[in-house]
């Protein structure tokens, strides 16, 4: 039996034993189901209740998890203001909300409440409006929370902190002196680096915008809808931090930008989402004006994240090539259609 298979089996055995930390005197079952990209997920059945067991794969940092869980628990106190679910970490009998595996790697696990639903696939205008409202409601709720703990994740605009292997010089070298295997993407990489520098120049302006807690990764994969298509939950607060308030909206709109759609349809989709959002958040003119650039920032953040994964040997070349193409197409499209997102006129 190969070492890799043995490690997988060992991890499954450890996962199977983890619920005992929360339910020492109860019987449970563990099942595999759909999960996120960054972490290992299992579903725990205890009586007639279901919970979500998450094994954090992206880091072993207890401070990051403690901050995430603290924000969620603070949100629980104002849950009545949110007409949808958010995951709540379950406290262990002896206190705390996380367990460190004895696997020699220091992986961390936590148990969360479960909400039944599916990720949205196609969104009509009424759903986009309701989801815009939901994001506005969450942003308004997060604005009321003052954390004593310091956030571990940097804001989006601190691009030198996106990935430890992607400091500014490493990004410059890769984009402007691409390895031979990436020469077919040379033009795309040079364009991406130009947008990176434009963003870098705008950082002093972004720092002056209103700041607060933001989820930072609201997209279709982190939302659940019920059988009627209504929003049931916003999930995965792993990257919650303090950032420019408007970045929450920029992340959502970035997910809606699909260059294959007509300009009229894209404009309608984005404006409909924004109309829902603005019912709860009144952006300043400065926030509205810089929104198109922040949508680009989200795309560049994804590129830098996957560049780091490639440099670390986590992803093969093909994955990064796809990300380069997607980043180039979306940032170029945004530059050519910047008038589409002029929310400062609203």
Automatic annotation (TrEMBL):
Residues 31-270 form the Aminoglycoside phosphotransferase domain. Transmembrane segments: none annotated. GO terms for molecular function: amino acid kinase activity. It comes from the Bacteria. Pfam families: APH. InterPro entries: Aminoglycoside_PTrfase, Kinase-like_dom_sf, Pseudomonas-type_ThrB. Belongs to the pseudomonas-type ThrB family. This is Aminoglycoside phosphotransferase domain-containing protein. It comes from Paenibacillus pectinilyticus.
């Amino acid at each position: 039996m190969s070492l890799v298979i043995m490690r997988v089996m060992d991890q499954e055995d450890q996962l199977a034993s983890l619920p005992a930390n929360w339910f020492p005197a109860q019987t449970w079952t563990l099942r595999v189901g759909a999960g996120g990209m960054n972490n290992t997920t299992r579903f725990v059945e205890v009586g007639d209740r279901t919970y979500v067991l998450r094994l954090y794969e992206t880091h072993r940092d207890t401070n990051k998890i403690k901050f995430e869980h603290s924000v969620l628990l603070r949100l629980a106190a104002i849950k009545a203001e949110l007409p949808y679910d958010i995951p709540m970490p379950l406290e262990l009998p002896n206190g705390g909300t996380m367990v460190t595996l004895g696997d020699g790697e220091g992986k961390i696990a936590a148990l969360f409440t479960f909400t039944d639903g599916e990720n949205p696939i196609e969104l009509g205008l009424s759903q986009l409006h309701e989801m815009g409202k939901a994001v506005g409601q969450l942003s308004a709720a997060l604005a009321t929370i003052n954390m004593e703990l310091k956030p571990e994740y940097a804001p989006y605009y601190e691009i030198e902190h996106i990935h430890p292997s992607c400091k500014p010089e490493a990004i410059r070298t890769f984009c402007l002196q691409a390895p031979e295997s990436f020469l077919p993407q040379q033009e795309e990489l040079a364009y991406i680096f130009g947008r990176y520098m434009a963003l870098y120049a705008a950082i002093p302006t972004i720092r002056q915008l209103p700041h607060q807690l933001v989820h930072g990764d609201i997209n279709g994969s982190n939302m659940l809808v019920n059988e009627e298509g209504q929003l049931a939950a916003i999930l995965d607060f792993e990257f919650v931090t303090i950032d420019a308030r408007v970045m929450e909206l920029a992340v959502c709109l970035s997910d809606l930008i699909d260059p294959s759609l007509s300009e009229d349809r894209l404009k309608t989709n984005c404006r409909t989402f924004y109309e829902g959002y603005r019912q709860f958040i009144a952006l300043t003119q400065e926030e509205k004006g810089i929104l198109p650039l922040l949508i680009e920032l989200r795309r560049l953040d994804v590129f830098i994240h996957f560049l780091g994964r490639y440099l670390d040997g986590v992803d093969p070349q093909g994955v990064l090539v796809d990300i380069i193409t997607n980043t180039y197409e979306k940032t170029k499209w945004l530059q050519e259609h910047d008038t589409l997102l002029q929310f400062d006129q609203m």
